[in-house]
Amino acid sequence: MNEPAAVTAAANGQLLQVNSFGEWRTAARELLRAGVPPEAVTWGTLDSNGSGDLFSGAPAPGGQTHSQAIPTQQAQPPKQAATVVPRSLLDMLQKAAGFRAPDRWAFLYRVLWRWQQGEHDVQSPADPDGSRLHGMAKAVRREEHDMHAYIRFRERPIEAGAPRFVAWFEPAHDVLPQVAEHFVARMGKTSWMIATPEASVLWDGATLHNTGPLMSSAADLDDAGEALWLTYYRSIFNPARVNAQLMQSHIPSRFWKNLPEGAIVPSMVSQAELGARKIGQVDTVGRKSGATIPITAEKAQPDREQPSKLDECRRCELWQYATQAVPGEGPRGSKGGAPIMVVGEQPGDQEDLAGKPFVGPAGKLLDRVFAQAEVDRKSIYLTNAVKHFKWEPKGKRRIHKTPAQREVEACHYWLEKELDAVRPKVIVAMGSTALKSVLGRSTVTLKDTLGKSVRHEGRWVVTIYHPSYVLRVPDEAARQEAFSIMVKGLKLAHELLEQPDVPGPD
């Protein structure tokens, strides 16, 4: 029985040349069945591209071309069982076959041989051969995408038997067959031709024809409609916004020479650099006479629908990092509103998790203050100037971070809603952040108002320390003094409830 041609060539130390994936598929199948290792085969380089499906029953397109030259070491061909290759590997081999490299066929056969020997890691990107295989397939897919995007068809005069549209492209890899199938599906029965330096394809509306090279460049292509396209391109080109580096990054330089607009872009970019940028701005920017009317940034903002629920608030960025918003807690409403509202800075770690104000260490100390001042916590409305926990990581813990002024101002919207709902007679501001939010002034200081009462918008405002400050004070005497100021402030707030509701200076 005669040996297959591929096996005979390998056994005789001859060059095994293939011109398409289909031919390589047939030869590789013969070599694997004969047990010929990769090092016993010398593969020839590619002359033209083809396509095929490895190990399918159909014959390879174009037949086999096994020229004889270049002796190599003698092959040892023990007979092997038929190889079963997964579809994913076959697809990748066929895709990588379009990658232009002198050793592509030898490399693909080595991958196939290793798979047959049980080295299935060869398909993994972590394997050296697998990494190269993935890289080759990726490069071919990228070239297909670029050819889809940057190929330009020129319309030709209607002639019998001639394609209506002609395009020239210079691909870096052998992707013409795949791209041709793409345009067959896209352009219907319209005839066209794509020419490259290596080969050409012609679609007559019903059949796709493959030929050798029919053109040498795009210089001879002309299109009457191209002048209209270039006129349009010039009209939309804005020299005031040109960015040459961005244009080059979006479209690789090797494609520009064959694009119609590639011939005019360099001069337009040069004109922009030499002054057209300024002229473009002057022509398009209107100038109106008249006095400039100053307006604050707040008044210049457009009217936007405000959130109706605290959990939906996106007025600042703190919501992204908190577990949940922490609303105030206590009596509210026209019949049972709290006479005293206590305002802190922001929720802490435990408040953020529980969704309730003052349930952590600061809350426990505040309970002691209420007890000393003989004030029932249930009669008080407790809330914070900022409703989301602002923190920074420290090991595995979340450490409190003071809110920025813009975050306090953003959350003042919710404090105003609470004031309207609770309608307290006295507000106790615990700490500097709460005081600034209640009074709406960023310049007010804690030391100027500590332990005192002021009138603001028809209410009394009393300032005391925040419980967390008392917890942080290292000196025992200072801690006792701060605790005492808090107790006295709560007592003062309770006493102010007895004061008549007469207007006072804000």
UniProtKB/TrEMBL annotation:
Keywords for this protein: 4Fe-4S, DNA damage, DNA repair, Hydrolase, Iron, Iron-sulfur, Metal-binding
Keyword Nucleotide-binding in record: no
UniProt-annotated stretches for the region Disordered: 43-81
UniProt-listed GO biological process terms: DNA repair
MF GO annotations: 4 iron, 4 sulfur cluster binding; deaminated base DNA N-glycosylase activity; metal ion binding
Entry-linked NCBIfam families: SAM_7_link_chp, UDG_fam4, UDG_fam_dom
Protein name: Type-4 uracil-DNA glycosylase
Organism: Telluria aromaticivorans
